Amino acid sequence: ENGAKSKGDCAEVVKDALGEFALHEENFWIVLRLYRLKCHQMMDPNHRFAPYVDAMPNEFPEFTHEEMECLPFYARYAAQYQEKKFDAFCNAVETLMKDNGEDENKNKGGKEDDADVSSIGFSTQNAEDVSTFKWAFRAVNSRFWKTNPPPELNMEQTSELVPFGDMMNHRDPPNVQMVPLPDSTNHVCFAYLGDDNDDGENDDDDGDETCYERDLFLSYGQPCNPHRFLVIFGFVPNSQYMPNVWSHLAYPDTNPYGSSAQADQMTFDA
Fold it and tell me: How confident is the model at residue 214 (pLDDT cuts 50, 70, 90)?
């Protein structure tokens, strides 16, 4: 169409708006896509991606200011980085829509059933827009992964969010691995690796669960980095890596049960 910006033009607008967070530009487009799907789901419960959106959590963990202040240094840095990254993403999507109207969807993989996207906008002044965009931002942050294409395909890694394939919980070691399909750039399969107690027989005397009915687990990576897990996923994979969490309560010097000088020692068992 006349006046429609090219895919490259849209990408340049986004990179400029992201500033120092331009290295996350690929991630930005996934967040924007999920934001649009969430908006579609709210407008049309029968949208083809509505079952996927409905199956996702309604909200994701978020630290309060007090909680962030008492995080260990690396976790606090990571949490503050995510806040700044979100602000940059908000600036980028608002800039893109002002600069390009509704055309960015056509240039970034919009489908025919997205024909009504002109009714989907974004403004940092609209609390509902920001809340929905933050939902998409946190969902993608905790659910996307980098592909690992076979060397013979000579392809670079890309960021992906695979509906329903992103819903497996973490375990290290995992019993499922994502495997790219041979000669495919767009499809993956999930291979069951097996568990130590797989023997093809029932797990218990009642015969209620067989080896084909067990929970499936992926590894979220860096299992020995509790700070990353706490900030991105909202939990610590193993309490031995972070046995204590810091209290944000501060006692005055006159308090007989403690003093402000001892605040750093005030912890609770995780």
Answer: confident
91 pLDDT tier (thresholds 50, 70, 90) = very high
Distance, in Å, from the CA atom of 5 to the CA atom of 32, rounded to the nearest integer, reads 17
Question: Could you tell me the two tokens for 110?
Answer: 């919009």
Burial 222-245 (b: 16+ CB within 10 A, else e): ebebbbbbbbbbeebbeeeebeeb
Which of 129, 135, 159 shows the shortest CA–CA distance to 145?
A: 159
Task: Kindly report whether the global pTM for this prediction surpasses the value 0.85.
Answer: no
- Strands 169-170, 217-218: pairing is parallel
Positive/negative CA dihedral, 78, 79, 84, 89 = positive
Rg (C-alpha) for the chain, rounded Å, is: 22
The amino acid that residue 130 corresponds to is V
- Locus of tokens 């530009």: 25
